[in-house]
Write a structure and sequence with these properties.
The chain is of the alpha/beta class. It has 13 helices and 15 strands. The protein binds nicotinamide-adenine-dinucleotide and uridine-5'-diphosphate (UDP).
Amino acid sequence: MAAAARLDLDGNPIKPMTICLIGAGGFIGSHLCEKLMAETPHTVLAVDVYNDKIKHLLDPPPPPPPADGGQQARNPWDGRIEFHRLNIKHDSRLEGLIKMSDVTINLAAICTPADYNTRPLDTIYSNFIDALPVVRYCSENNKRLIHFSTCEVYGKTLGSYLPKDHPLRKESEFYVLKEDASPCIFGSVEKQRWSYACAKQLIERLIYAEGAENGLEFTIVRPFNWIGPRMDFIPGIDGPSEGVPRVLACFSNNLLRREPLKLVDGGQSQRTFVYIKDAIEAVLLMIENPARANGHIFNVGNPNNEVTIKQLAEIMVQVYSKVSGEPPLEAATIDVSSKQFYGEGYDDSDKRIPDMTIINKQLGWNPKTSLWDLLDSTLAYQHRTYAEAVRMAMVKPVAS
Ligand code: NAD
Ligand code: UDP
């Protein structure tokens, strides 16, 4: 019996699409590929310089033909994902892939804060210059574009400029971040932390202008701290020993090595964390509902999961102890200055609460997973994936 047709939010059947997914081998890309393979009939042209995080989805080497001459076994997604190892900085194959696709999704970026102030040129090139041909090819070939920006384009909240005990700090207009109303507030140019946010803001403005002047069909996504399995790397295991990933991987690394979690400037900044699997549902709704998603900028986050970074560390310590069966360290956290941790030119977003009005109205999307539950499954994954490798790395004798 044929499977029932998938319907969009307006009850229309969804036709199978070809999706050019740039940055498919990263954290978000790998989860999106999994979702598209498992739940949709769409085809993915997966573009990246790496593919380790999607190896499990790419065509495995063909198994030996069955002895009885019967049908060759195939993977369940039957060749609907094709990997193209290319660097979008300089590869003439990119336009061809965009032309072959119904929609292009651009995830490619340098997006780890430790790079923003230490490699500002690479950060600006990656987030602005390298994205330009993608926008141009979509515009010139009348192809739809879903571009990944960041919540960091909001920068700091209006409230952060008020005295600590000022009553206006409690008013939502001073901290809730709205796509169509909030200003973008960055620190001075010497604070190179903002090189990423500024490059992302300029590419957003360019895409918006392509929509206004040349009719580009676009959607811009502003992720608010999506976290889950396969995010970044564990230094010295599947990434450079000196590398500094985002906070989930930094704290996971500390927990795996049984060392105190480092709280930058006391861990007073606040973040809202959303489970990657919830967030991917929102992206799928955008892909499959172009009439509702085109021309919009969407916050995608979980306003109910707000914590200070210090609170995040405390919860991760408890959850890790539960999933690993190891007692927590007595002194589980330690304060470090941002200058020590990130170097000169670091600055921070104070608080990030996404307004959810637009995504609710257009796509009816809401996040589901609590912070405790998402950390429980994520840290179980980290423990399962890395504990043994970290243990082995820590007992290895140092070469004399
Ligand atoms: P990621 O680093 O895991 O993935 C990015 C992928 O892009 C990597 O696999 C990388 O190899 C690839 N890439 C980079 N430059 C490339 C190039 N020149 N050519 C080909 N491939 C290239 O990051 P992620 O967390 O999956 O983020 C994806 C997007 O979402 C980024 O644009 C990021 O700015 C945005 N974002 C993510 C979050 C989050 O919470 N994860 C928050 C804000 C914004
Ligand atoms: N942070 C921290 N310890 C770490 C890594 C990060 O205290 O080991 C802080 C960082 O200063 C920031 C927050 O955690 O306030 C979130 O950092 P992340 O790298 O995840 O990205 P951001 O949300 O700033 O884009």
